[in-house]
Design brief:
51% helix; 338 residues; 12% strand
């Protein structure tokens, strides 16, 4: 049995806490919001996870020290925009070699760092890893079969995470490609906004398939230019996570995109979703990375114009369709197929 602190009481952190407690681990959830601590402690229910009961064995606290002290593993489950500030608050109680598993997905706009890099920047003494994949909290909390990938700097840490999380309904693979895992998990949220906007415009399955396929092409182009492995983008944290985020109504990014496609502004869509829409925060960073690494990302470009420049979603789709003619795979040689 491991002692685990879940830093963040959103749906994903709560779902993982329920999963870990069911496996026999001792779990503590930390929230920065006093009213949330009181409500979760008393009601033992999360408002965005209907029908799920938080076991009495899970401790809920507003004190970081209680959530961190003498823990085998810490799960960083706060929204991406709060990862740096939360990591900074964790400094007094973070021991050397403390394993911290980031499960949030995003890129810091001001630095273009992945979230594991942000945590390492604030907590250089920690052993930072990631856990990602097609894994909606609503399904994980209900015990529906799910598969993720644990990425770490060492095989030992990745296998520790695998052992702690894996059970008969939550399968965990391991990988050394932390950068690829994080880029796939972050950039897919931007593509999901586009997929949702297409749904909101009333477009069909053909449009959705095209956005997913060309979206993973954009993600893989940038990701491999930055040092990620192409195989990672073909796997669970690449195409797998992209498919579920573009297709599921559990996806807050898709839901926000639908509202934008229906004519709402980005601010109106985010307010209606009632949860953090990570793709909005990653969109500018994705475009900045594309420019930095000289990679073509037309879907990301159009999403930014819709989100921040007031461009109508229908016009953005038209511009994507009317781009200059080109081949699908640029390095295929016609002569090889004669």
């Amino acid at each position: 049995m491991a002692s685990i602190g879940v830093i963040g009481s959103g749906t994903w952190g709560t779902a993982l806490a329920v999963l870990l407690e069911a496996k026999g681990h001792q779990v503590t959830i930390w929230s920065a919001i006093e009213k949330e601590v009181e409500s979760l402690s008393k009601e033992r229910k999360h408002p965005n996870l209907p029908g799920i009961v938080i076991p009495e064995a899970i401790q809920i606290t507003g004190k970081l020290e209680e959530a961190m002290k003498e823990k085998t593993l810490l799960v960083m489950a706060v929204p991406s925009v709060f990862v740096r500030s939360t990591a900074s608050k964790m400094k007094p109680w973070c021991r050397k070699g403390q394993v911290i598993v980031d499960v949030a997905k995003g890129i810091e706009e001001s630095t273009l760092m992945t979230l594991s890099q942000v945590i390492e920047d604030e907590l250089p003494q920690a052993d930072v890893a990631v856990l990602s994949g097609p894994s909606h909290a609503e399904e994980v909390s209900r015990g529906l079969p799910t598969t993720c990938v644990a990425g770490a700097h060492s095989r030992e840490t990745a296998e520790l995470i695998q052992d702690i999380f894996m059970n008969e309904v939550f399968r965990v693979y391991t990988s050394p490609d932390m950068l690829g895992i994080e880029l796939g998990g972050s950039l897919k949220n931007v593509i999901a906004l586009a997929a949702g906007a297409a749904d909101g415009l009333g477009y069909g399955d053909n449009t959705k398939a095209a956005l997913i396929t060309r979206g993973i092409a954009e993600i893989a182009r940038l990701g491999t230019a930055m040092g990620g492995r192409f195989e990672t983008f073909c796997g669970l944290t690449g195409i797998g996570d992209l498919i579920v985020t573009c297709a599921s109504m559990h996806s807050r990014n898709r839901r926000a995109g639908i509202l934008i496609g229906q004519g709402k502004t980005m601010e109106e869509a985010m307010a209606e979703v009632h949860m953090v829409v990570e793709g909005v925060y990653s969109a500018k960073a994705a475009l900045a990375l594309a420019k930095k690494y000289h990679q073509s990302m037309p879907i990301v470009e159009q999403v930014n114009q819709v989100l921040f420049e007031g461009k109508p979603a229908r016009e953005a789709v038209n511009d994507l369709m009317l781009r200059d003619k080109r081949t699908e795979v640029s390095d295929l040689n016609w002569e090889e197929f004669l």
